């Protein structure tokens, strides 16, 4: 099983709809979780951290399910500007040191 | 705002050339990273550094070396560029090497090796 797995998509979603995607991780010792957003030919930028209690930032909600080892991102009332690739990032501590693992990303296209 | 600056946005080099990619951060971050990003493969860590003159191999260090002589600057060196090193190279930095620290990325260097 890959360390961090995401559905590559693309998710083609009409403007105004709600879309959700998940990211699974294999190492139960994983300690912190993030969603990054990457626009075409640009660098990744932090979208939001994912806390155990879940967190919400405007139209975006991130949740963590430790028992099933996945995190999710929900986007409500999607906008054209939400079109991007969303990268799941998991920080884990293995026997030697801290490790940051990136998923390969989920592509989202918001359709007018 | 944290600023991570990569010296070139686009670079074209020939096979066998020595290539230097420079990265500078202005927030006194301890840690700096070099990734490459390829379609279908995602971001892969080449090298990272947690202090001046310190370096650690990432997942794909072969064909690369790094230099960190000053805290703010982390250089990636391709000793003898090859066509399979054509890629987007991303530099990143963070405050601490703890599990809760987010990464700040530079805008990337698209390197083409002909």
Summarize the structure.
Chain A is an all-beta fold and 112 residues long. Helices cover 0% and strands 59% of the residues of chain A.
Helix count of chain A equals 0
- Taken from the alpha-carbon principal axes, the silhouette of chain A is globular
Strand content of chain A: over 45%
Any idea what the radius of gyration of chain B is?
Answer: 13 Å
Q: What is the molecular shape of chain B? A: globular
**N-to-C SSE string of chain A, H for helix and E for strand:** EEEEEEEEEEE
Distance between the termini of chain A: 37 Å
- What does the largest sheet of chain B look like? 7 strands, mixed
Question: What's the β-strand tally of chain B?
Answer: 11
DSSP strand tally of chain A? 11
Strand content of chain B: over 45%
Largest sheet of chain A: 6 strands, mixed
The portion of residues assigned to helices of chain B is under 10%
Low-confidence stretches of chain B: none
Number of helices of chain B: 0
């Amino acid at each position: 099983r890959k360390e961090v797995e995401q559905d590559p998509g693309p998710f083609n979603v009409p403007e105004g709809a709600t879309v959700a995607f998940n990211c699974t991780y294999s190492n139960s010792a994983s300690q912190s979780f993030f969603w990054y957003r990457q626009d075409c030919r640009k660098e990744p930028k932090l979208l939001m951290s994912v806390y155990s209690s879940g967190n919400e930032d405007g139209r975006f909600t991130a949740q963590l399910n430790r028992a099933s080892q996945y995190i999710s991102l929900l986007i409500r009332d999607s906008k054209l500007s939400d079109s991007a690739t969303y990268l799941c990032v998991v920080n884990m501590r293995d026997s030697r040191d801290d490790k940051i693992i990136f998923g390969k990303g989920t592509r989202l296209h918001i359709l007018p | 705002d944290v600023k991570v600056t990569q010296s070139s946005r686009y670079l074209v080099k020939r096979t066998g050339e020595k290539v230097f990619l420079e990265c500078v951060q202005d927030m006194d971050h301890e840690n700096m990273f070099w990734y490459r990003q390829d379609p279908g493969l995602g971001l892969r860590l080449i090298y990272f550094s947690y202090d001046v003159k310190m370096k650690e191999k990432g997942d794909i260090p072969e064909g690369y070396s790094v230099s960190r002589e000053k805290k703010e600057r982390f250089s990636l060196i391709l000793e003898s560029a090859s066509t399979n090193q054509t890629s987007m190279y991303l530099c990143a930095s963070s405050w601490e090497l703890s599990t809760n620290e987010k990464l700040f990325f530079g805008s990337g260097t698209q390197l083409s090796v002909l």
